[in-house]
Amino acid sequence: MTEESKYRGMTVNERLFVAKLFDKFYNAVREKYVEKAIAILKKVELTDESIDPILESVGLINK
């Protein structure tokens, strides 16, 4: 049996808010600190496949 994620069914912003990482993530975005933004997104259990589109949507990477 696998453990369910505490973030299941939440949006990215909801995950960041619940984890108290919302401001840290958007500060990393504002500072263009890609590595820090990725680390924060991984803390809220986002997959590598979902992180790139998020970074693209906030202007940190171009695809």
TrEMBL record:
It comes from the Bacteria. This is Uncharacterized protein. It comes from Pedobacter flavus.
